[in-house]
Structures are given as C-alpha cells and as structure tokens.
Amino acid sequence: MILDIDNNWKKILQPEFESSYFKNLMAFIDEEYKNHQCFPKASEIFNAFNHCAFNEVKVVIIGQDPYHDVGQANGLCFSVNDGIKHPPSLVNIFKELESDIEIPYPLSGNLMPWADQGVLLLNATLTVRAHQAGSHQKKGWELFTDAVIKIISKEKCGVIFLLWGGFAKKKIKLIDTEKHIVLESGHPSPLSANRGYWFGNKHFSKTNFLLEQAGQNPIVWALK
C-alpha cells in the first residue's frame, strides 16, 4: 500500500514507518483492502494528517474506530461524507455545538473544515472492514496513533486535547499535562449523553477561549 501521508508528518513519523510493527500492519491492510470491502477509501486513510499539518495542530480530538457502513468514513474521527446521514454520536456533537456557541445545526457531517483549521481528528484505529466494527483493532494501528499523540506532546506546546469517553480518557497517560491542556467529558454516544455525561461540557467555547488566551485564532466550528 502506498503511504499517502503529508510529507511533514512523514518526516516526523519516519521511525514508526520503518518499524517492524508498522510494516506488518501495512501488509495486513494491503491484504484486507485487496480481499474485502474496507473503510475509509485507501486514499483517505491518512486524511486526518493530510488536512491538519503537524505545524498547524492546535486541537486534538480522539476517536476509536472508523464508521463501518458504506459511504460514511472519510478518515476523520466522528466525520462523515457530505450527504450521509449523521450517526448518533455526531448528532449529539452538533446538538452540543448548537447550545454551546449558538450556531445552527449543520447540514453536512463532514468535519473537514475543522481539520483544515488545525483540529487533528484522530481515530485510534484508522481502518475497518465493512460492517465489522473493531475488525482492524489490535493489528498495529493503536501503536501508531499512540506514537502520534506522544510526538505531539513532546514536540509541541499548548495543544488542547479533547478526550471524550473512557477510551479517549486513557490517552491522558501519553500527554504531558504540564505543557498541554486536557478537557475531558463523557462520550457523545446516546448511551453516555443521555445519562448526562456529554451535554453541557461546553468544550467548543472553552477551546476557543483557551486559544484566544494563547494568542491563537479560534476555531470556526460552524459548518455548512
């Protein structure tokens, strides 16, 4: 499989790409994409990196697995392609956006505009077999994405990490909390949100307040 990833990220992550675990992972992914329907499209596996250059990373949102139904996944966590029905977690993300910063509920669930402003929308596992949730977990992706978080933590300062739900919260051990800011809440999935662990976290307005305090441009969270 061709490693279709931004050159700056490629340089920073070269030790990972040269490791045995990553070579084994790429061999596995190559076979999966040849023999099964997998998501996202091969050209979009590294979209999170290709739409958010290392030097531009201001915010990191961590997801777990790509969506596994046809046409949904586009390489960014929680994001779906234009024209695709919004999955339940994304619906709740947008509801919180509405109440937090008083913007209209977006028509599109494509979060590419966030990525283009410096929001790294990083799934822990970057691929999945169609209709089989978690099918590419524990094949090496988690080692890679953990390394990404560690490198951001080590090489940058003042990044805002949004950790939503128990899985994401475990990643705090990879983050230097003296250099970076971590905001935690429940997951936006209906199970968590309906129990009161998601709504009202105000992570979008808090993130912009923190960015402005640091002299950086806030994120335009509004989508078309």
TrEMBL record:
Record-annotated active site: 65
Keywords for this protein: Cytoplasm, DNA damage, DNA repair, Glycosidase, Hydrolase
Name of a matching Pfam family: UDG
UniProt entry tagged with the keyword Kinase: no
Catalytic activity, reaction form: Hydrolyzes single-stranded DNA or mismatched double-stranded DNA and polynucleotides, releasing free uracil
Highest taxon listed in the record's lineage: Bacteria
Domain Uracil-DNA glycosylase-like: 50-211
Enzyme Commission number(s) of this protein: 3.2.2.27
Family: Belongs to the uracil-DNA glycosylase (UDG) superfamily. UNG family.
PANTHER family reported in the protein's UniProt record: URACIL-DNA GLYCOSYLASE
Functional description taken from the UniProt entry: Excises uracil residues from the DNA which can arise as a result of misincorporation of dUMP residues by DNA polymerase or due to deamination of cytosine.
Protein name: Uracil-DNA glycosylase
Species annotation: Winogradskyella litoriviva
Protein's gene: ung
